[in-house]
Amino acid sequence: MSDVSEGDVSEGGGRTERPRPGELAGKAAVVTGAAQGIGREVALVLAESGAARLILLDRDAEGLETVVKEVRALGAAAVAVAADLRERTTLRTRLRAELRAAGRLDILVNNAGVADENGPDDETTWLRVLDINLHGTFAVTATCLEYLADQGRIVNVSSILGKAGKMRNTAYCASKHGLIGYTKGLALDLAARGITVNAVLPGWVDTPMLRRELAAQADEIGADPVRMLRQARKGVPLRRLVEAREAAELVGFLVSGRAAAITAQSLTVDGGFTRGM
Hints:
Strand order of the largest sheet: 3-2-1-4-5-6-9
Organism: Streptomyces sirii
Shape: globular
Low-confidence stretches: 2-12
Number of strands: 9
Distance between the termini: 14 Å
CATH topology: Rossmann fold
CATH superfamily: NAD(P)-binding Rossmann-like Domain
Pfam family, one: adh_short
Largest sheet: 7 strands, parallel
Radius of gyration: 18 Å
Order of helices and strands: EHEHEHEHEHEEHHEHE
Protein name: SDR family NAD(P)-dependent oxidoreductase
Number of helices: 8
CATH architecture: 3-Layer(aba) Sandwich
Region (Disordered): 1-24
CATH class: Alpha Beta
Family: Belongs to the short-chain dehydrogenases/reductases (SDR) family.
């Protein structure tokens, strides 16, 4: 679904296991959308698991620098690539330069995306959302493939709306459905090299993106955004929102050696919201 974090609305978050130290020792990774939310947590999980070098990409240069400092404090080398996924030439040039400097790549996590609402005839938003969520993911992946080592790992962060629909979200739903199809096809293309490609499908995740979305919706209908968040929590069987860290831990598992036989799959983390759909 998307990404809410200021304030405690989750009420009783789950326990998450710490990464296995050294599990990703020496690995190099690219994480997009790394400035906040799930992307930030993925960067921290990889660093805690021993990854040696992280290339972190986001259009939020200030937020990205903060995460770079956090990753370095965990002992991993980290560089920031401030770029917009829609600006393909700049994106490819900056990313390729860092990949050349790293010399190799073992892990790619495509997390960057937007969740703008749109009416069924809103072509401007339609094109923008697909350009970032789907075409931007393709551009990053295509740039990284030249450097991705055999036995490498790719994880695409989709959404439970990659399997379902939602009003005023045709663009987002289409982009996330497309990302699942892209994951399946790419997994078959790269299987001969031992590279696995999987998708993670978060539901209601307590991140800044979700808070912004619900605040905008609340403003439109004159509702209280905090109350809307509490109602969202009540609709989840576990009676809480998923924590960004929990989604990141699933990514951490999929990029590890423990998941070497898992590919072309879409794994949901939603507290039971979709009832196993």
